[in-house]
User: Fold these one by one.
Assistant:
Number 1:
Amino acid sequence: MPRSFLASIFLITSLFVLSLEAKKETPPAEFARKQIESLPKEDIWWTKNGETMLWSFKNLHTIFPTVTVHRSGAVKGLETVIDETIGATYVPTKRGEMELNRFLESDESTAISVLILHKGRIVFERYPRMKAQEKPVHWSVTKVLVSAMVAILESKNKVNVELSIDHYIPELSASDFKGIKIKNILDMATGINCPEEYVNKSACYYIYSASIGDGYWDERSPDNPYEYISKLDVGKYSDQGKEYDYSGVNTFVLGWLVEKVTGVQLHEAASEMIWSKIGAEADAAFFAPRYGVPVIHGGLLARPRDLARFGLLFTPSHNVVTERPLIAETHIERLLYQGRPELLASQENLPEGVKHNTYQWDFVFEDGTLYKGGWAGQGVMVNPVHDYVFVWNSYFKDKEESETKLTPIMFYLAKNLIREKSE
């Protein structure tokens, strides 16, 4: 039998098999439906880990309503000058040291994206589990977008952080927030007994999170987070300004402050004050599951490059994205040098080199790095001294969170890069 005839038979058979396999593939719309249907019905949607969590983090606009943070004007391009030595850096993992590029693509990692800028230029950019144009949720990284808006209002003498919050929001005068200074809300030091809690459904924070649509809502949950916080009566665990205690309720109150002073909802204020002025590639958004109220404490959906543009506002390279500084130099000096180390005195297992927290930034390091993290391995770091911006996103592989965490890797990279550039 001629070889050409056998080759033809083989080709036809191969095409037939490929055609059958293609028919077995789930259409995109059906795949999205199945992902949404697989989310927990009697618990918080984000409690399902693995590939479902990855898909959800990239597709919250498919699962929930969103409110838009608008861009405007020409896109401010980011020059790309890749530093190959970064990807070749050996980083510590559970399996031992591994090249960064190899780690990010490996099963040991759940990295969604990693982006590093130095002096306003992209020096490292990888998207191992997303497309560059996608807008993953950045969770609590959102908090420093909110505090930046407060800082901008402060620089315009529209907010005085030494005043109590009920000066600007009279609705809080009958709540535990009465008399709490804005600076103590910014620094997570209110003394109010409402720490983050996503297990005990009767806890103050859980009830708040349900009311805004982040936690699990049922018919017993409040419908309005503004009303719930305005009547908050859970008492104090400490005097204000004495001790750090992380709570997204503080960020919600700061967002409410921005809304009160500007007269618009938070996402509209973010559009007008920041996103429309940084040459963003795309609109951002907040997911807003209930009545169009953005999840103020952690709901930002944005392209990594655009989040990096926001980060540049805190660096000497701010002029790459905006002609006039949006973040005052006095504010950056305050972040770097005027924190209150005593607030972290009772905190354990702090990373090496942490000086203080301030203005919703989790840590300010001795080398000038400001860090804000998200609960499932998101983060942004900016270094106004050495002119770096780091943006990353990840997720949990399983209930045991068995992956090598991305955030410590980013700390390791930042420390090494800053040391190398300083030598």
Note: Residues 39 and 45 are 6 Å apart (CA to CA).
Number 2:
Amino acid sequence: MKLLNNLPLRLIALVAAAFSMLLLFAYFATVYYKGIKMKHVNTVALAVETGRLADEIAGMVEVWATTSDTTVVLSHSADKLEQLRARYTTYLEVLQSGGVHTIGNRQKVQIVRVKEAEAKLKELRKDWKELSPSIEWLVRYLSGMPEARQATYDRAWVSIQASEFASKNNALKAIYLDWAQKQEHVQYVWFYTLLSLTVLLFFILFIVGRYLILQPIRQIARVTALLANGQLGVKVTHYNNNEIGTVARNLNRISETLYHASEFAKEIGQGNLDAQYKGSKEVLSDTENNLIVILEQMRQQLKEVARRDQEERWIEAGVAHFAGVLRGASNLALDELAYLIVSNLVKYMDLQQGAIYFVEENIAKTTLKLYAAYALNKRRYIDKEFLPGEGLVGQAFRDKNMIYLEDVPPTFDKISSALGGAKPRSVLVAPLKLNENVYAVVELMSLTPIPEYKRDFLARVSENLASVILTAKNNERLRKIQQETEEVEKRIKRRGV
């Protein structure tokens, strides 16, 4: 009884025996169907093919023996008869020797050497030595060789000898077929014996396991049912130091983990995205399917969604803000419009410095001239311009793409910056374009990295800014034309007077 109560020992022994039997059964089945069976099939197939070759040789000999005009009937049979003779000789040797052979153009096959057929194979090999010279002569005769036609053979005797030889080959084929049936019967006996032993072993395992495991499992089943119905925190009172006791302790841990996980999820559901799991920290692992890890990931994802929503609202508010700021701004002077744009960009994006360059085109060249600069809440007056492709401003104009740099080197001011002052941590240079035409380039700097959502905001309002700049330039051009027209009219009036 003590041995029966030693659950680990009994279970390990039973499981090991069952597993060993299964491995043995699987191994035997694999060997049977992929190895032994294939060898038997190859051997019988070769014996059948050998008998067929013998029948075909005997048939051709009989045609030769009974036909008067052999040149007409068998004029194309010499090559075929020679092939049959060569193949039969090879197959007969393979059946007698056994082993692995390459037959024709096929892959290597393994042939079984059958003891029951050795006497018949020996007899056939002797008869073939006697018949083979006649077949070789007949091949030469049918090929039209003069020396073969001069020789004489008793046709009736050769035909009878070939027929008897074919009959012996059919007897050999019958021996191989009978042998294959016996081998198949033996294999099936072993197969079903092992299957029966496996079934018996599992039946014994079921009977023993039922009485050793069922009783303590009932209590575990009751607790799991309560857990399934949502009653978290319940525990199992089975504390034996065996596998069932281990299951009970693990189930208690699951119950405790689920209870704390439900409290954690409840806090998240109430909007407290900073809540923390209050259970055992041992359950926190890097396992992908860990429940607590999944809840932590869900909390982080919710925080990420909330952050993105906040950033999107910030972008939409910024677009609305600039729509109001730019309303009627196209009537301003270009330098006032430039200051309005760059100052509002720096303030709204919470940056430290900014500059805006307008594109000026004339017959000689195209330049990017600094129209306004803003730093530390003050307007800056700096004279600076770039050519297309020169510095970051010129590159942004030429490529029509936004450029963003972090960890700006100390020499940055010497390369492209026109603002001076403290060395920036990040620089954002963006072209203001409309219909793929760039009308200005804005350069923004910060002592901290510029987040991606702020860069997205600048890209979203850049078209509106470019449209206002284009309209302002057109208005400026119209005002100049109007002034020039008025001056011309005044001159004409003076001359008329």
Note: The chain has a mean pLDDT of 76.
